[in-house]
Amino acid sequence: MSGIARQRALTQNRRMSSEPADTGSPAPPPASAAAPIIFEQPLNERMRSFLRVDFLYNQALFHHQSPSHWGSRAAVDSLLDILAITTRADTRADVLKELERQVSLLNEFQSKPGVDQARLRTVISNLLRLRSDLLACGSAFLQPLKESEFLAAIRHRSAIPGGTCEFDLPDYYFWLSQPAEQRGETFARWLAMLRPLCDAIAELLWLTRQGGRPRTEVAPGGVFHITFDRDAPVQLMRIALPAGCGIYPEISGSHYRSSIRFVSWKGPSDRPRQAEGDISFEITCCT
DSSP assignment of 115-128, as one string? Predict the structure, then answer.
């Protein structure tokens, strides 16, 4: 939880300080200043589900902003995928357990020096609020979505390529033909049911990422092996590579050990090949 220390600024739950006055159009940053590409690898099933739900929720929010019926289609698809994940496992229970664990860990920092106590109290307060909201909605909070015949028909037909065409689902086509405001209001009600779960997952992912300390490593011949400390299980591994380097990692393994193989990108038409030479990269192991 080094992210709570004073010497490291956090980016969430905090307003940005006032910016200096704009004195004109800033010069474009040099190519070397481009943000690195970060590849994330979950190392347990809980983290894998969290990342997928967060990805789908952000995708749903993005498409929800589109006034076109194609945007509504994409948003509904994302929502149905979230329901599929949460139906297979008790994601709500997993989130509540992780919230409790994080609160317990953060409480231990209250007596340690070098910790921004105001920031720490804010983070703990946010976690307690998210836990309260998730508890208040009850274990059956997604039941209206699961029992909706309208959504169930779309989910069933989505398993067929092109199965949600207008002649397959005339009621869906009719809904998509309604004004964007009307479709938006309906979808907003659906999203509101998901929000307590998805907001909690977003906060947990942020905390998990902040808990890791990046370090630079070298992969001899493009291959790197790492063994984790069993007393401090790693949940998420993050690999950062410079933008434009033309290399990406293929990661395999578990929370005990993992292997990283760096591959050169040759384009979608060419077969990728293992990178040659020693590859320098940044790795962050998040517990």
Answer: B-HHHHHHHHHHHH
Angle at 236 between CA 227 and CA 202, to 5 degrees: 170
Instruction: Give the pTM.
Output: 0.84
Over residues 239-248, mean pLDDT: 94
The answer to whether 205 and 197 are in contact (CB under 8 A) is: no
Residue 77 backbone dihedrals phi, psi, to 5 degrees: -60, -40
Closest CA to 282 of 251, 221, 237: 237
Q: Which domains does the chain have, with CATH numbers?
A: 45-210 (1.10.3900.10), 215-286 (2.60.440.10)
Residue 76 CA: distances (Å) to CA of 63, 161, 199, 265, 282:
9, 16, 19, 33, 37
pLDDT value of residue 269: 87
Segment 22-61, tens digit of pLDDT: 444 445 445 446 799 999 999 999 999 999 999 999 999 9
What pLDDT was estimated at residue 25?
A: 44
Cβ 2 vs Cβ 211: under 8 Å: yes
Q: Could you give the CA distance from residue 15 to residue 169 in angstroms, rounded to a whole number?
A: 46
